[in-house]
């Protein structure tokens, strides 16, 4: 959708909701209108309707708007995410118990690593990759895995675009990154060392579906000082293989899980 | 919003997305139109626009529609949920490690217990409360806590409506439930025993903000045979108090967390 010129009513509604996509917790009405390229009158009317419907919420004290719980709830039903998350969580819990580092699960989304679940290693390096946030593919362990196994056109598009330097260690030379990605495919895992944030390093491995296609990346993020792949890789690779087996048995590319889940239990 | 007669363009869009709220993974175009009370022509056009924008996704094999990853991502930014989840997760992880039972966090939503996060006890009773799903207040441990501390009008509305019997043990008599809720307030915790699902029992405790207002419920769900409150309550109450302290220090009713979170780290 071209958010700069919403073509239709649905386009305008999507443009308003997209205004929050960058991750801003709250926006003023004028900021929403500016980002959605809507005249104030139109924006005011649509935002009012979305607020009445619970898709947006108005902050009492300052009148700013934020994404509403109702929208969160509808979005949480996205099967491509919820099915994968559902099958991955137990393996991520095991990995957390084994390492107490940050455990993250990411998928490829709009040329970025989109984090669909993560457990936080409280006694590890502080990481605030939040569910729903995305990070660059070239500077994160999970991202390198996704990029290494992405369709060639996606990979080349990322390599052709400017590679943002996040730290002095970020790989910003396309050829150097291309060699690193080849090593990721060869070795079966990716590593970063202070490449996204100084002091944080990671190891990432692919998660495959029944066809062997890489559908996600599982990663551990630890303090650089303790982030030895020789320590992190064995449990990580073990959990990724176990998850891949579960995906092969229960997961469909369209996000459905079979057998269908039993009814909710208290 | 009155989904039976979408008043406006935004209302129609919300009605289409609301069609997925009951938790259906995928719907046909005609099912969406039926639920959204839209003529096929209008529904077809709007669904097409929402699909083009990534808010909906079309299943390749059968042409049904499902919630798109883009909508999931925007929804995941709902601060009322994400802020609470962010602060709760470390405490839920501790509780999981201490008990290996199902750890759940719920808030009050539309007269139901809305589950915003949960960790799965693999070696415990199978529970598929999924993030974003809701369960009845009167038959779940977390729900009883939320109901016991809900505004009187909300509580009376739930007590006045028919109380669904999920098992032979579900409390369906309003007076009996009212007495149980009074005990929940007096004791500081709620219990269920086979009331939602035979074989599963739970203990729930309140999570309070800095004003002492109950803003969420933390619960453990275990096999009825092993669900002894004397075992489950101490770690649960400890984690809930620790989370309440974090909320008092860092959480605002509008969902913001202070101090602001540091930038994303790999």
TrEMBL record, chains A, B:
Domain (HTH iclR-type) ranges: 7-69
Keywords: DNA-binding, Transcription, Transcription regulation
Signal peptide region: none
Alphabetical list of SMART domains matching this protein: HTH_ICLR
Domain IclR-ED: 70-249
The UniProt record lists the keyword Chaperone: no
Protein name: IclR family transcriptional regulator
Record organism: Actinomadura gamaensis
Lineage summary: Bacteria, Bacillati, Actinomycetota, Actinomycetes, Streptosporangiales
């Amino acid at each position: 959708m071209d958010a700069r010129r919403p073509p239709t009513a649905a386009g305008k509604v999507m443009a308003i909701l997209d205004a929050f996509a960058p991750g801003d917790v709250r926006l003023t009405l004028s900021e929403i209108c500016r980002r959605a390229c809507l005249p104030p009158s139109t924006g005011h009317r649509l935002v009012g309707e979305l607020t009445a419907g619970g898709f947006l919420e108005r902050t009492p004290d300052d009148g700013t708007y934020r994404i509403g719980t109702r929208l969160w709830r509808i979005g949480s039903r996205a099967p491509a995410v919820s099915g994968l998350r559902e099958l991955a969580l137990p393996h991520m819990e095991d990995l957390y118990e084994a390492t107490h580092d940050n455990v993250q699960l990411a998928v490829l989304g709009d040329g970025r690593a989109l984090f669909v679940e993560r457990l936080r290693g409280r006694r590890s390096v502080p990481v605030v990759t939040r569910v729903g946030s995305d990070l660059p593919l070239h500077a994160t362990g999970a991202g390198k895995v996704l990029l290494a196994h992405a369709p060639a056109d996606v990979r080349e598009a990322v390599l052709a675009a400017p590679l943002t330097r996040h730290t002095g260690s970020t790989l910003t030379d396309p050829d150097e990154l291309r060699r690193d990605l080849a090593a990721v495919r060869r070795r079966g895992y990716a590593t970063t060392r202070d490449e996204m944030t100084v002091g944080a390093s990671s190891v990432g491995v692919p998660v495959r579906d029944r066809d062997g296609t890489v559908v996600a990346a599982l990663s551990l993020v630890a303090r650089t000082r303790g982030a030895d792949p020789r320590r992190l890789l064995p449990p990580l690779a073990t959990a990724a293989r176990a998850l891949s087996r579960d995906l092969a048995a229960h997961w469909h590319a369209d996000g459905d899980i079979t057998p269908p889940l039993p009814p909710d239990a208290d």
